[in-house]
Design brief:
The structure is a single chain. The protein is an alpha/beta fold. Helix content is about 30%, strand content about 25%. β7 and β8 form a beta hairpin. The termini are far apart.
């Protein structure tokens, strides 16, 4: 058996990253907190409509809750949309079906491709208007900054509903896991009792 073959079947071989791994990194990336509360509303798997027949899902959305300046310079809260890919074949499928991302991208101020490895995307493949975030160590870093979408469209009510639902589910998941610093901060600020505790 060759060294390469033994590495491929070894228990010590590095595990392939999953979408869940990348979503966890995005939750950490957008898990900021300031004196007023959460910096971002975080939402995994946002469906395009509220019904059972929704055919499209955005992997991750993060709404920046900070106003972004003062007075005439105020830009308002910015919505970041993310498409997560953990294999080259998935990325090539995405490139063949641009309408999938466009169902969400037009409502987002910034649109990001998020990959487990930068080699998934070849030079010249990143569509106009997309940024690139890649796994780096235990986190995710910006490789190519997304340009702001100056023609962003208002989010329709159906998408607002599914975004709100996804924020709730994502927050509950993070709270149950018990390792999200932003949630710990807000619980402290709200004087909530510790998990399993009572109000007295």
């Amino acid at each position: 058996m060759s060294d390469l073959e033994s590495l491929l079947i070894s228990d010590d071989a590095p595990a392939k990253m999953t979408e869940r791994d990348m979503l966890d990194r995005l939750n950490a990336r957008y898990g900021s907190f300031n004196g007023n509360g959460f910096r971002y509303a975080r939402a995994e798997h946002v469906r395009v409509t509220a019904g059972f027949d929704a055919r499209r899902t955005c992997d991750y959305m993060a709404l920046d809750l900070w106003p972004g300046g003062m007075g005439r310079n105020r830009t308002g809260p910015m919505l970041h949309g993310h498409e997560v890919k953990v294999s080259r074949s998935d990325w090539l499928t995405e490139l063949r079906e641009p309408e999938k991302a466009e169902a969400f991208r037009r409502y987002c101020d910034y649109w990001w491709l998020v990959v487990s490895d930068v080699s998934i995307v070849r030079v010249g493949e990143l569509p106009d208007g997309w940024g690139l975030i890649a796994a780096s160590g235990g986190s995710a870093r910006i490789v190519a900054r997304a340009p702001r979408n100056e023609a962003v469209e208002p989010m329709p009510r159906d998408l607002q509903a599914t975004f709100a639902r996804a924020v709730t589910k994502t927050t509950l998941r993070l709270e149950r896991l018990g390792n999200d610093r932003a949630l710990e901060y807000i619980a402290e600020r709200m004087n909530l009792p510790p998990k399993g505790g009572t109000d007295g």
